[in-house]
Amino acid sequence: MAVTRGRSKGAAKQVAERAENKLYPIKHYVRIIIIISISALILDLIISFATIAIVKQQSARDLRDTAYLYINRINGDFSYINHFMGWTLANDDNVNIMSTHELNDTEFIKANDMLFRRFVELQKSYDRNYNFFLFFSEKDIMLNVAPMGLTYKEFQELKGQMNTYMDKSVGYDPFYSRWSTVQLDGTFYILNVFLYHGNYMICLIAADDLIEPLRQINLGEKGYASLWTEDGSLVTSPMSNNGKRAHVEEGRYAWLMPFQTKTTVKGEFDNASFFVRLVIQFGAFEKIMIAQLLIMLMAVIVACSLSFIMLYFRNKVLQPIKSFSYNLAFWTEDGEPIDIASNNIAELEKANKQFTGLVQQIKTYKIDIYEREIEKQRIQLDYMKLQIKPHFFLNCLTTIHSMAQMDMTEEIQQMAMSTSIYFRYIFQNGQDFVRMEDEIEHVRIYLEIQKNRYRDAFLYQIEGAEQVPELPIPPLVLQTFIENAIKYAVSRDQKSLITLIVRRRRIGGELATVIRITDTGPGFPPHVLEKLRQGQPLDQTHGTRIGIMNTIQRLESLYGGRAAVRFRNRAGGGAGVTLYLPELPAHPSETGGQPNASIARR
After folding, report:
1. What SS3 state is found at 87?
2. Do both 467 and 562 map to the same domain?
3. How far apart are CA 216 and CA 236, in angstroms?
4. Mean pLDDT of the chain
5. One domain for residues 75 and 183
6. Which residue, 166, 261, 558, 581, could crosslink 513 as a Cys pair with Cβ 3.0–4.6 Å?
7. Are the beta carbons of 301 and 329 closer than 8 angstroms?
8. Inter-axis angle of helices 26-91 and 106-125, to 10 degrees?
9. What pLDDT, in 10s, does the model give residues 495-517?
């Protein structure tokens, strides 16, 4: 029973492995590419038709809104002109004077001149294409009360039609206070007539001039704008955007309307016997659709061609390269390459042999470079320490010499003992890192030595070091900046305060040690502070500031460029130095091969 179960589990495992590792022929993927291409072509057709329909509707809507804006402006002009003509005819004294005097009378001429000026201003406010006339039926006199654009023949024909309108058998009701169409010498005009006590006020504008702004709208190559009367008569010639006369088709091929790109917009005028018709016809829609179809067709052709090329190269190139790449993945645990199976391509066989030799050379060079880099860093650190030790030693001897000159025997004994402890710490310490507790104690001894020298010239405070006694820190780092503060901040004229604060903080998600050293002295000189902030080397020709530069270089090497030193002058006076020391890496290689610590700007 147990054997049967074991066989069943083994068979199930084999089936699962076969299903997981199932391989498909390249024809399968070619078939998928063709199906996807055809599906994309059909989808592109649907999207193209939908896009064309949406763009067509949006374009028609925008043009319709533009046309309605112009029509509304014309309606406003018509309304104001009607009011102006009616009021002038009924209330303007100049009209009464002209109706009661003869044509050559002085009063008639003055009144005509005043009226002419008023209508000139009206023309300036609206459109110079508007023509205004005053007709006195009793005198059979018609005058233009504004500059006119009619020919003399058209003017005479208009006067004749006014006489005809006064005939009771014809009447002027179709034209009275309503904008209508009239034809003068073969040209259609828009006319409005006001009557008051036998006097007629007439406004006239050419139909083509009225809709000229609408013809400036891009309605397509075959689109046009035209005026039509209520009975369906064409008032203006349908001019297209290219300046040619457009062909008007009414009701033809109505069954093709869903597939046509022509859209008709009708706009009504207020208190008028005519309307405007805009025919929008863009041929670019069909061009866009054809271009998209051609692009998709080319994509399908390219996909099919690539599929056949893939079939051809499968056995000639792809399979040998796949075998070569597969064999490269097999390596022994110690990094040694194994023998790669031969293939049918001479170039790959040659590359196999060259690659094996190259791997061996790279491994040898890598080990050699790594060992040399470690030795180089060790030599640099030892040299920096040798520079620091004489520097401190000379300063201590100078201090003891000064105390001896002042016969300070007891202080010299304390100074000698402190100096002995101080230099024992320096000469016995050959490590890269020491405990924070030992480094702080060393700094405290140094400060006591300086207090013996300067007596009550300065005070010092150390905070936070007791919280991290076991924290590793490079030796003599803190003493370097404390020594700089003593040298430039402490004087016998004014008592100074030197503080050293140690804190642990998270910076950028990583735990780091922040050490702040401040004093109440004059601070850094501006040119020195600028160089320190820019990370530029200081002038060491006279042996000054060697300790600071050495300390910075040591931090660069020991922390692999992740430590930072920031310099500043405090607002209340004095200098400030802040050290940012990150956590030490678990392995030396994590610091990188080329250390480069940052001296950051605060």
Report:
1. helix
2. yes
3. 15
4. 76
5. yes
6. 581
7. no
8. 160
9. 899 999 999 998 888 889 999 99
The predicted structure's pLDDT at residue 114: 93
Question: What is the domain extent for residue 126?
Answer: 53-284
In the numeric block, which tokens belong to residue 570?
């405090």
Give yes or no: residues 374 and 500 share one domain.
yes
Q: What mean pLDDT comes out for the span 110-120?
A: 91
pLDDT in tens, 559-590: 888 899 999 999 888 999 999 999 876 544 44
Q: Are residues 390 and 260 in the same domain?
A: no
Reduced 3-state DSSP string for 60-78: HHHHHHHHHHHHHHHHHHH
Taking alpha carbons only, the member of 179, 45, 204 closest to residue 123 is: 204
The residue type found at 507 is I
Average pLDDT over residues 251-275: 65
Q: Among residues 228, 253, 284, which one ends one of the domains? A: 284
CATH number, domain containing residue 456: 3.30.565.10
Token digits for 164?
A: 């005809």
Tokens 């014809």 correspond to 170
Region 127-142: mean pLDDT is: 85
pLDDT score at 498: 94
Using H for helix, E for strand and C for coil, what is the string for 1-49? CHHHHHHHHHHHHHHHHHHHCCCCCHHHHHHHHHHHHHHHHHHHHHHHH
User: Is pLDDT of 352 > 50?
Assistant: yes
Give the Cα separation of 111 and 497 in Å (integer).
102
Rounded Cα–Cα distance for residues 60 and 260 (Å): 13
Please tell me the predicted confidence (pLDDT) of residue 336. Answer: 57
Q: Is residue 505 part of a domain?
A: yes
Between the CA atoms of 102, 107, 112 and 118, what dihedral angle is there, to the nearest 10 degrees? -150
- CA separation for the pair 396, 450 (Å, rounded): 9
**What does DSSP assign to residue 179?**
B
Are residues 372 and 280 located together in one domain of the fold?
Answer: no
Q: What is the pLDDT of residue 63?
A: 75
Q: How far is residue 277's CA from residue 268's CA, in Å, rounded to a whole number?
A: 9
Residue 333 included in any domain: no
With H, G, I as helix, E, B as strand and everything else as coil, classify residue 539.
Answer: coil
Strands (E), 207-286: 224-229, 239-240, 262-268, 274-281
- Domain end point (choices 284, 300, 330): 284
Paired sense of beta strands 496-507 and 458-463, if any: parallel
Encode pLDDT of 291-306 as tens digits. 766 777 787 787 777 7
Residues 378 and 266 in one domain: no
Indicate the helix (H) or strand (E) that contains 463: strand 458-463
More confident position, 193 or 321? 193
126 assigned to some structural domain: yes
Q: What values do phi and psi take at 261, rounded to 5?
A: -100, 15
- Domains in the chain: how many in total? 2
What is the C-alpha to C-alpha distance for residues 576 and 567, in angstroms, rounded to an integer? 6
Buried b (16+ CB within 10 A) or exposed e, 451-461: bbbbeebbebe
Average pLDDT on 83-98 reads 89
- 149 falls within a domain: yes
| Residue 385 one-letter amino acid | K
Same-domain pairing of 394 and 513: yes
Same domain assignment for residues 67 and 183? yes
